[in-house]
Amino acid sequence: MNFKKLALGLCMLTGCCVAASAQQKHPHRNILWFDATANFKRFTVKDSITYYLERSKEAGVTDVVVDVKPITGEVLYPSKIAPVMKEWKGEYQSGVKDLSWDMLTVFLQEGHRLGLKVHASTNVFVAGHNHFDRGVVYSDASKTNWQTISYLPGTGFTKITGQKNKYSAMLNPANRDVQQYELSILKELVKMYPQLDGIILDRVRYDALSTDFSDYSRKAFEKYLGKKISRWPEDILSYTGGDKPEKVKGPLFNQWIEWRAKVIHDFVYEARGVIKKVNPKIVFGDYTGSWYPTYYELGVNWASKDYDPSKEFSWATPGYKKYAYAEALDLFTTGNYYFEVTKAEKNKIDTSRVNRTEAAQTRAAEDWYTVEGSADLVNRLTGGKIPVYAGLYVEQYKGHPEQFIKAMKMCREKSDGAMVFDIVHIINYGWWEELKEGLKN
């Protein structure tokens, strides 16, 4: 009996070979994220960096992601382009006057000593923190006009810095000056740190469906259409009246969605080219949310080009699939940010009380609003073309360590590994043993 043929036949019948082949094809990683501002003081001390990297290694972490460009647009390394963050909430870098070392260099040296892969993360289309009126769009007059413009009910065209209910002062992704500035930072970072194992982009997106309605975007969209827009912005988006205004889609809405996806698609591919030109071996990665059915609101099509969303969703044009960018990535980590782990737990979701604060999330009770369901969705839409690492937001499991462990195991079962955000919660909750349990084979 030919056991190889028999095994292959069983595999094809059951579909189990899909996950197995993906695990063999793509590198397995257990990724732990190190947020810049949440850990600012902790990780500007050399001994602290070493200590927490050692604890991470002991827990089964294989890769660490060091946030070096938080939402303020400042950076945590000696850049000649972006302002350097030397203080956060009254806490100061211990070594700001000693230029013989910097945080990222120590992360690289100590991480590599321990056998860890070290990636740098940058928040791209954002340059200010609205809760502190701090950041590049606040401090640099030449960049104030880069901030995104929202079209909102009641207030109309509104700058993002005037929306204090939002903490991220997002930029206009279509603005070429913005793009070139962000690309220059990425290029500088990769040049400065040739030892980096990877770059992972974050916030490569629009702020919301209500953005960007600046004059710049209007002209760019009209160029894409090849005609003038007679009713701006009503031909794209307007609102009903009353105490609870609802969005009304105009005749150009779907083309607007397609164009925004093209903006992000083109930038991702350009960023890959810039980075790979400096270091061809570096891993080029991206983070997005996993909730694809509503993620179009952010101008992002993270699927494979082989997937055609127009066959499933009314907001997608037949041309929308052209602006998918999964194939541009060497690493893709997604936010599977839900308390419910299995699809069966969907029935436990209280849609009246569920707390979903990530951009473009809704209160719906769907399979893809569980860790398992969202991981399955990501796998289907990326088609096994790229390594996928399902991610968790630790704070969602506060007081429920058993659910956190269960979620980590699901991420590892359903993808090429797990991404855990953020180490600050592991430290605060004392969940090192829980982390180790969730990551062990």
Automatic annotation (TrEMBL):
The organism's place on the tree of life at top rank: Bacteria
Residue ranges constituting the Glycosyl hydrolase-like domain according to the UniProt record: 42-285
DUF4985 domain sequence ranges: 311-437
Coiled-coil intervals, chain numbering: none
Signal sequence interval, chain numbering: 1-22
Organism: Chitinophaga chungangae
Keywords associated with the record: Signal
Name of the protein in question: Family 10 glycosylhydrolase
